[in-house]
Amino acid sequence: MADLKYYDVILSPVITEKSMNDMSDKKYTFYVHTDATKSQVKEAVEKMFAGTKVDSVNTSTVNGKEKRRGRTSGYTADRKKAVVKLTADSADIEIFAGL
Question: Does position 56 have pLDDT exceeding 90, yes or no?
Fold first, then answer.
């Protein structure tokens, strides 16, 4: 297991139609480091975004897609997604406010 700091865990938010609809239920989706655990994701969200309290974290590994360039084929890198559900009395995450 890698020695990850909380600011290395969350890589970027996932901006899709489904993730935008889940925001009404206080569920936010992020791409996270592939070695990050659920407890590390929970700690990172609570430290990076003030006033948030995490209720649960669901993670899934997204396998890389096969890409071709002429006769040569390869795969894109694997990624890991985390869906973070906040408690009812928690503050909203501000980076999603303008979307």
Answer: yes
